[in-house]
Every structure is written in C-alpha cells, then in structure tokens.
Design goal:
5 helices; extended; 126 residues
Length: 126
C-alpha cells in the first residue's frame, strides 16, 4: 500500500488508483474480521482468507468422513467452472458476462481449496 501511495503522489495511473482502492477495501475487511473476533470470538467470514479457511475446514471434514461425497463435490465444482467458461464464451449470454465471470471465479477459488486438500493428502502419503 505504501508503494501505491508513493506512485499515486508522483503520477497516478488508473491501475494504481484501482489497486489502492482494492487494498483499502481488503484492509477494512481485515479490521472488521478482527473486531468481530475480539468482541465475539467468531470471525465474520467475509474476508477471502477467512472464507477459504472455513471452506477448507469444511471440505477437509467431508473428505475425512465421506471421501465419495468429497470427490463428487470436486467433480461438481470442476463442471461449474467449465459451465461458466462456456457461458462467458457464448455470445447469447453477453448481458450476464459480469455475473458469470464472478461465479466462475468463485468456483475457481473453491477448486484451489480442493487442490490444496488433495495436495496435502499426496504429500502426507509419501
């Protein structure tokens, strides 16, 4: 954030301003999460790091308790990514492109959580 502030003071570009705004939004989300945790002992689960941690925990429990259901969820998530990729390429669905990109990114992030869990299992089995 400090680097962005220096660049904005000198000669700001649109990307610099956008980056500074996004950094400030993330920073505010972190403060809200920490404030909630300090007051209640629970996270709000709005910040991406906390969301992924909670989702990682839930998927790890699913894998440990029901591996078949875990693999089914993994396959469904992959299909969702493929589905939204095709929606984005479809000229008939151009009006919903931002919604489809957001949903595709959400499922891609979930795929990363799945891959981390599977990578941990592979590392532990060696």
């Amino acid at each position: 954030m400090r680097e962005l502030s220096l660049r904005i003071d000198a000669r700001p570009t649109d990307e610099d301003i956008k980056g500074l705004a996004e950094a400030r939004i993330r920073q505010n989300m972190v403060f809200e999460e920490l404030k909630s945790y300090n007051l209640t002992g629970k996270f709000l689960c709005k910040h991406p790091l906390v969301i992924h941690r909670a989702e990682h925990r839930d998927l790890q429990l699913l894998k440990d308790s029901n591996p078949a259901a875990f693999l089914k969820e993994f396959a469904n998530c992959k299909k969702n990514v493929d589905r939204y990729d095709s929606y984005i390429r479809d000229p008939k669905k151009k009006k919903d492109i931002t919604k489809n990109e957001r949903l595709r990114d959400k499922h891609r992030e979930r795929m990363e959580v799945f891959r981390k869990i599977l990578a941990n299992e592979t590392d532990n089995s060696l």
